[in-house]
Prior knowledge:
Number of strands of chain B: 11
Keywords (chain A): 4Fe-4S, Iron, Iron-sulfur, Membrane, Metal-binding, Oxidoreductase, Transmembrane, Transmembrane helix
Transmembrane segments (chain A): 6-25, 70-92, 98-116, 137-154
Oligomer: heterodimer
Pfam families (chain A): CCG, DUF3483, Fer4_9
Radius of gyration of chain A: 28 Å
Protein name (chain A): Fe-S oxidoreductase
InterPro entries (chain A): 4Fe4S_Fe-S-bd, 4Fe4S_Fe_S_CS, Csal_0991-like_N, Cys_rich_dom, HdrC_iron-sulfur_subunit, Helical_ferredxn
Helix content of chain A: 40-55%
Structural class of chain A: mainly alpha
CATH topology of the largest domain in chain B: Rossmann fold
Amino acid sequence: xxxxxxxxxxxxxxxxxxxxxxxxxxxxxxxxxxxxxxxxxxxxxxxxxxxxxxxxxxxxxxxxxxxxxxxxxxxxxxxxxxxxxxxxxxxxxxxxxxxxxxxxxxxxxxxxxxxxxxxxxxxxxxxxxxxxxxxxxxxxxxxxxxxxxxxxxxxxxxxxxxxxxxxxxxxxxxxxxxxxxxxxxxxxxxxxxxxxxxxxxxxxxxxxxxxxxxxxxxxxxxxxxxxxxxxxxxxxxxxxxxxxxxxxxxxxxxxxxxxxxxxxxxxxxxxxxxxxxxxxxxxxxxxxxxxxxxxxxxxxxxxxxxxxxxxxxxxxxxxxxxxxxxxxxxxxxxxxxxxxxxxxxxxxxxxxxxxxxxxxxxxxxxxxxxxxxxxxxxxxxxxxxxxxxxxxxxxxxxxxxxxxxxxxxxxxxxxxxxxxxxxxxxxxxxxxxxxxxxxxxxxxxxxxxxxxxxxxxxxxxxxxxxxxxxxxxxxxxxxxxxxxxxxxxxxxxxxxxxxxxxxxxxxxxxxxxxxxxxxxxxxxxxxxxxxxxxxxxxxxxxxxxxxxxxxxxxxxxxxxxxxxxxxxxxxxxxxxxxxxxxxxxxxxxxxxxxxxxxxxxxxxxxxxxxxxxxxxxxxxxxxxxxxxxxxxx
Amino acid sequence: xxxxxxxxxxxxxxxxxxxxxxxxxxxxxxxxxxxxxxxxxxxxxxxxxxxxxxxxxxxxxxxxxxxxxxxxxxxxxxxxxxxxxxxxxxxxxxxxxxxxxxxxxxxxxxxxxxxxxxxxxxxxxxxxxxxxxxxxxxxxxxxxxxxxxxxxxxxxxxxxxxxxxxxxxxxxxxxxxxxxxxxxxxxxxxxxxxxxxxxxxxxxxxxxxxxxxxxxxxxxxxxxxxxxxxxxxxxxxxxxxxxxxxxxxxxxxxxxx
Lengths: 633, 257
């Protein structure tokens, strides 16, 4: 009897392995519709490290599901590995059966936890086939435990053994089918196989290399007429693979500011739309939240048909603020922002159909090198009485101050003036470029106009090449990000710091003469700019500045790397897609919830967005203004 | 409704950007191009033509806005281009150009000279162009929201107002795919321009009243003392108060019901 069960298990194992392999071949054919990508097969050996370090680091933010997943996945992998050894290779060793029993019980415990989470699931989770998953896991773990028990027990169960053996086989077969067939049929368990392969062949390999954050957009080869992604088959094959890794946990949906504002973008649905396009069909199996305002719309996808207009409304694409909150939250390390920008690039470069004021802003950038269509000579008008030298070719300065587009905004000019005063009080040798400073091209790039970005970047690098300076300081995180992370690949390498970093260092060195402040300081909270916090991981320097001037910050619930966007990013304030609420209003509610009387910002665009919130609200102050107020003049 | 086989010529010229001084597209020429694309239906029946001394890059904006090929007639900067252009587009049934160009020789007089050369009627300042059989009907732009319908038999020269139709959005791919085709330079006689110093015409504004802004404001708004022209209504229910407002608006013909 025991031996019959053993043979049956061997048969079942190899049947499952064969089905899984066939399914993988079938799914891989879908991925291979994509463009070639330069990733080596040898990357497969990086999977364990990337899984246990990079991926688990994200999953561990939710300790409950992390424990459940460790138990389920760990147990399942152990059961499968032991089954492969003991039954696949027909060793039939009782010791391995004992281990398999332990592994199956571990998996059972995990499956119970998963089931408990599914009892009252948060709104962000997808239902449908995903609700079936805990049952499949339970069946498999019970089947595995029973099979191991029967193998160990010999004849102890007597006549009941046959019935129990059938039950065990049924459990293993039904539960195992979820995994064996999942990848081929696109079921929930495809995430296990696709997810592991995605870790190895991730489109951003530099994400896993040490402390550098890989947040820069990659340049397009415009000369080769690469105009971004039109059809699913225009994605690189490993991007298509990455879409299949999605577990529809909806962490991205919960973090997305556009989704919360009721704009027609749900990042989870966006990724599933890409899966629908890749696999052709209308995505009827999707049982999660739709793009806001688009419930019940059935859209047909095809790997060789345009995505925008078919699968996706253009408004979905233009709602994204590129704030990377989704990418930060994604446990499967999917790159939503890359996907959005690739699609935007095609729309902008081939048809130019950028909504709202985006088209005007891009025309201004092409014609005047400024977003607002201002004369370049006006960029440093605010500094006219501050005696800031304009750097001339041949001269040298320690610090080059680059004001960016915020220099044309009268509100932000106050912050710039404060910054100059502080830097001068600290005795830094600062100069500006004056009327030769063009725009860095950030907005053009986020709106998908890679041609204008590359043209502006070239102009900026040419200009900077003509001047001699040690370091650049800028209060604009967008300019900071471009110079620091996106210019190097184009050939521009600069030592650039955000003004919060410079101010923090100066304060810590005691280089800024501060007056003793007797007046009690109003309660202050700090809004992290996405392009400083999430894009550059710099959440510490602004807080060091507050410490340096004796301000205790009341933190918002969503701050630091989890900070919520102000609504400007990615040109969203230009495309201005209507929603039910405005993103800056929601952020101001976050600020009000702390009870703070003022909110400190460290970005010209956050300043503009939060200053634009109407009605009674906390005061918006710039970091440099807070420091300047404490200057002993 | 466009006649299927209409041959259309669009005249374009680079403008000078008012802020940066760089060459850019002119909105009226862009509108003419957008209309031309619509009316010609296909690029074979559409000729986009420029005569002057600008560099190819200055015309790139029109390529990005949908012209698949811009034909350039290289001339000296001060050449009289009307006869040259007329020779190039003699077979066009419909000639479109901006009401005025942003620079170069495409001055306000060019369409009239061109119409004279082609012996065709000129329909100026079109906001919309419709082809009806063998004739063209346009809606003409006039100041203060006034409009007028004009019609003429083909062939015809139409100057297009910049608000006629939005230009096609700027597309980098179209710019790269489009071509600038240079014809052989033609010797042309210089335009007969007579230059003379412009007299400065100072027209001082005379204020209707010498009172300060604050005083005039006080005179216009209502106060309780009854000395001013305004009226403060404090009596009566909201309906009566609203009636006063409505009467005021009707008196001043601000509402018509």
